[in-house]
């Protein structure tokens, strides 16, 4: 006599038996059928599987065959009800946060949650189409600002679209979509932003007006190096070689929503650089260091539990607050604006001092490659594209220089005999 438990085992074993290439097909205790198949591997190399349910074995086998055909054709999308907003949240935490700087992550997060999620976040990821993104682009250009008063710049919208492209590129790798629909969207035309930094005379007027300011050494070094604001305010004395007359960019000061003022590594490999500085800036740095040492002594300190604790919070910063703490970049920029006003100069952004440094060097005949290395641009193409507005004048100078070396003898005239 066959035991009932043995009959159940035989039935279960028969249910688990698979046809060739079918994947795993079995009947559940409730009578329904389940089919599972491996559709690839995730970023860690682990198998990714899909599961289908049905009332009969042929029903789940049909679903499995359809999935297998779509995989072969490259059109397979996992049967998921994940929305665009859900995938954006996953992408931010899983893929973006571990690989980019905190300030960059926060900018990604703000752009996606403020501009993308409210418009297309409710759409299922697998149902997202190019027209959804095209409408998003058009809307942002027309009235995309948070206050709805006007549209975003073409540059910002292009950046948002590129960010969506990254999000969907990862979704494609995960098998959540069968194509990156961002590739099919018409991008706003790139508008060349005309850079109009202070002229050499205006820069001299600015520096003279700033002569009595606490920030004069920082402004003078900016004129001499073209550092980014964060690089200037993150500069440490250990990164300054007063003997050789050079500074090295090794860190940057940034502000983040979650941590406030914090230090981070330079933006790119090219941003880590050493820049020789002119004698005027070197002399001022030496005097600045002497004054800073005096400030440390004047601040004094107090004895706590028998230990002397100085009031100066030494972060080894070249440019900082009077107590040694990092300087608020916004406050520093405000001081810059006040001196511009005092000197009667047009209002420009502090970043334009960086542009002024590059423009001045190019007009003085310096090779663009040298300018690229001083600025920390990733490629010389970026430098040339940024300062193309002054290249026509340089081309004319180059043409004139060619004439100075030309020495062609006059063609002799033929006499009739």
TrEMBL record:
Q: What CDD domains does this protein map onto?
A: INT_ICEBs1_C_like
Tell me what this protein is called.
Answer: Transposase
Region feature (Disordered): 1-34
A single Gene Ontology MF term assigned here is: DNA binding
Short name of any one Pfam family annotated for the protein: Phage_int_SAM_3
Core-binding (CB) domain mapped to chain residues: 82-172
**Compositional bias (Basic residues) at which positions?**
10-19
Q: Which residues form the Tyr recombinase domain?
A: 193-400
The protein's job, in short, is: Site-specific tyrosine recombinase, which acts by catalyzing the cutting and rejoining of the recombining DNA molecules.
Q: What biological-process GO terms show up in the record? A: DNA integration; DNA recombination
**Of which family is this protein a member?**
Belongs to the 'phage' integrase family.
Keywords from the UniProt entry: DNA integration, DNA recombination, DNA-binding
């Amino acid at each position: 006599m066959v035991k009932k438990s043995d009959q159940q085992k035989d039935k279960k074993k028969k249910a688990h038996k698979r046809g060739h290439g079918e994947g795993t097909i079995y009947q559940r205790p409730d009578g329904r059928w389940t089919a599972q198949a491996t559709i690839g591997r995730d970023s860690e190399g682990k198998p990714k599987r899909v599961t289908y349910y049905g009332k009969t074995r042929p029903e789940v086998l049909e679903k499995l065959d359809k999935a297998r055909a779509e995989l072969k054709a490259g059109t397979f999308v996992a049967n998921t009800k994940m929305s665009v907003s859900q995938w954006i949240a996953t992408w931010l935490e899983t893929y973006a946060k571990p690989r980019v700087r905190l300030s960059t992550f926060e900018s990604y997060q703000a752009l996606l949650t403020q501009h993308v999620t409210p418009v297309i976040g409710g759409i299922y990821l697998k149902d997202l189409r190019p027209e959804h993104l095209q409408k998003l682009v058009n809307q942002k250009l027309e009235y995309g600002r948070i206050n709805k008063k006007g549209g975003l710049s073409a540059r910002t919208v292009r950046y948002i679209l590129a960010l969506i492209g990254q999000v969907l590129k990862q979704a494609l790798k995960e098998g959540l979509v069968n194509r990156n629909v961002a590739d099919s969207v018409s991008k706003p035309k790139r508008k060349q932003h005309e850079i109009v930094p202070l002229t050499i005379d205006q820069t001299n007027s600015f520096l003279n007006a700033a002569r009595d300011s606490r920030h004069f050494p920082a402004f003078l070094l900016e004129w001499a190096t073209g550092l980014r604001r964060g690089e200037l305010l993150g500069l440490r004395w250990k990164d300054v070689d007063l003997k050789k007359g050079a500074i090295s960019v090794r860190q940057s000061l940034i502000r983040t929503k979650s941590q406030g003022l914090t230090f981070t590594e330079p933006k790119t490999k090219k941003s880590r650089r050493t820049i020789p500085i002119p004698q005027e800036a070197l002399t001022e740095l030496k005097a600045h260091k002497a004054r800073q040492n005096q400030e440390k002594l004047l601040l004094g300190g107090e004895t706590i539990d028998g230990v002397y604790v100085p009031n100066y919070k030494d972060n080894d910063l070249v440019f900082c607050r009077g107590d040694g703490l990092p300087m608020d970049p916004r406050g520093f920029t405000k001081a810059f604006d006040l001196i511009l006003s005092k000197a009667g100069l047009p209002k420009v952004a502090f970043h334009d001092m960086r542009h002024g440094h590059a423009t001045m060097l190019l007009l003085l005949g310096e090779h663009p490659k040298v300018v690229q290395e001083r600025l920390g641009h990733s490629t010389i193409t970026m430098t040339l594209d940024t300062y193309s507005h002054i290249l026509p004048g340089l081309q004319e100078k180059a043409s004139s220089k060619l004439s100075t070396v030309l020495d062609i003898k006059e063609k002799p005239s033929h006499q009739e005999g």
